[in-house]
Amino acid sequence: MALEEIQDDLEVEPSTIQVDPLSIHIGANIGGVDLRSTLSRQQVAEIRRALVRWKVVFFRGQHLTHDQHIAFARQFGDTTPGHVVYGNTDTHPEIYAVAKNRKANRFQGEVMYRPWSGWHADITAAINPPFASILRGDVVPPYGGDTQWTNLAAAYDALSPAMRKFLHGLRGQHRFAPPPGVETSDEYRDLMRKRTLVTEHPLVRVHPESGERVLYISPSFLKTITGLTPRESQGLLEILWEHAVRPEFTVRFKWEPGSIAFWDNRSTAHLAPRDIFDSDFDRQFYRVTLMGDVPVGVDGKPSTALEGMPIEAI
After folding, report:
1. Model confidence at 108, in pLDDT bands (50, 70, 90)?
2. Model confidence at 11: pLDDT above 60
3. Residue 194 has pLDDT above 80, yes or no
4. How far is CA 89 from CA 35, 76, 231, in A?
């Protein structure tokens, strides 16, 4: 749905939801709606407008089943497989289980952590990364385990005019690969062989609904900048990654049982918590993702798939 259509819908009747922003640049709580029920056209339009404006929106006290989670998501677009590389739950192909120790059987070894380590947008190694992700908290620790998001449109706007102009002509290669310094399991290597994904995306994409320019630099997936030497690429990427996760562009969300986070994957990156591993608390979440489009740069050129097939709807 185009932004103009959303605005037209909102002129039909007064607002039916409550939107409470959480920071200057990103994040808002949404109330006055029951996600277990089919939403009205007006509610869908208002939630989508809030999503585009605030990049990530949160709902409290929404204790959904898998089926209700999927039904809510489908009111905003077509669903994708739970995870195109790592799979899905046994009973629902649209659901990806985000368990506390889900990575334990993939990687071994010490990771060198830097300010941007772990930040990512979902599945940017694909030619058509998801438009949005919807994550729900099921088993939630009493404290710890918060998630953070950053606004990549605000990050772009905060760059100098000279840097913005320089980035418009650059593209980068996104791929699934383990963090530096770790060993991978046989299971992980087998998954990579079956579902190799490598795509060249513009470093600045134009948001298809808002028209904003977005610094499209998912730290966990973007590996090199095309046309630069390895040292130039590494240096520029580290400058951009460090800039993109500056605190003023971010919001941090404390989960509760029944919390839902719905984020625009085209204009944000997020960081899963690491502090939870310093506790004995369990943490079990579930995610549904929605079909996205092929990113387009400021020059009007779309992304290019280098390996792998597009994500398909289910």
Report:
1. low
2. no
3. no
4. 21, 22, 41
Backbone angles phi, psi at 140, to 5 degrees: -120, 130
Residue 60 CB: number of other CB atoms within 10 A? 14
Q: From CA 246, how far away is CA 150, in angstroms rounded?
A: 8
Average pLDDT, the chain: 92
Q: Which of 122, 174, 264, 266 is catalytic?
A: 122
Is 270 catalytic? The answer is: yes
Apex CA 23: angle with CA 22 and CA 28, to 5°?
Answer: 35
Bridge partners, 297 (sequence order): 205
**Structure tokens of 18?**
């409550």
How far, in Å, are 77, 122, 149, 165, 259 from residue 274 at the CA level?
Answer: 31, 18, 14, 36, 19
Domains of the chain: 3-307 (3.60.130.10)
Among 48, 201, 270, 283, the active-site one is 270
- Give me the catalytic one of 69, 120, 174, 266: 120
Contacts of 195 (CB under 8 A, 6+ apart): 84, 85, 176, 308
List the Cα angle 269/275/278 in 5-degree steps.
Answer: 155
CA–CA distance, 28 with 253 (Å, rounded to integer): 10
The question of whether 287 is a catalytic residue gets the answer: yes
Mean pLDDT for 39-51 is 97
Whether residue 53 lies in the annotated active site: no
Q: What are phi and psi of 261, to 5 degrees?
A: -115, 130
Cα distance between residue 243 and residue 118, in whole Å: 15
Helix (H, G, I), strand (E, B) or coil at 18: strand
| DSSP designation for 169 | T
Cα 206–chain centre separation: 16
pLDDT of residue 181: 64
Q: Residues 292, 266: contact at Cβ < 8 Å?
A: yes
